[in-house]
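User: I'm new to structure prediction. If I give you an amino acid sequence, what do you actually give back? Let's try with this one:
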Amino acid sequence: MARQSDTKQRILQTARELFAHQGVQQTSLQEIADRLGITKPALYYHFASREDLVRSIVTPLLDDGEGFLTRMEERHEVQPVELIEGFFDFHHRHRKDMMLLLTELTTLAELGLIDVVLSWRARLTRLVFGPEATLEQQARAVLAFGGMQDCTMQFPDTPVEELRAATVTAARAALGV
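Assistant: Good question. You get back a string of structure tokens that encode the predicted 3D arrangement of the chain. For your 177 residues, that looks like this:
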């Protein structure tokens, strides 16, 4: 059983590399199989399609993001700085897969992930400003949280603590908190 899991992880890692280098739509399952030295049917044993493979790459990211938001929503009160720091940490953890996704907007749309990201931003806005946020507050939240996501990808070589401090400070300023 461990062998199958290891093969699956190798497939995922190889797919990430090829997708990042040449794009999801331009990467065939045959190329992934060839790179790994396995047959295409062996790859199909683990993943029924390219979409299934992409979904397997992004599911941990989605589960982690959903878990973070659900934990924050379940609490009686959340301090905005804690929300900002936690959201930064989430994006920094998943920055490579986020970069892959953002370069493949068509794939994002096909998998319904754009709606997920937009709903997360709406939920974050409610957590910071409440259910009756003004348009200005909503715009501040989009700038803060969307910008935070961009910073984790824009500055990949910056030490994480330095990037975290700068990004959290900028997001707090954007939100006015």
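You can read the tokens as a compact description of the fold. Here is one thing that stands out. Residues 71 and 144 are 20 Å apart (CA to CA).
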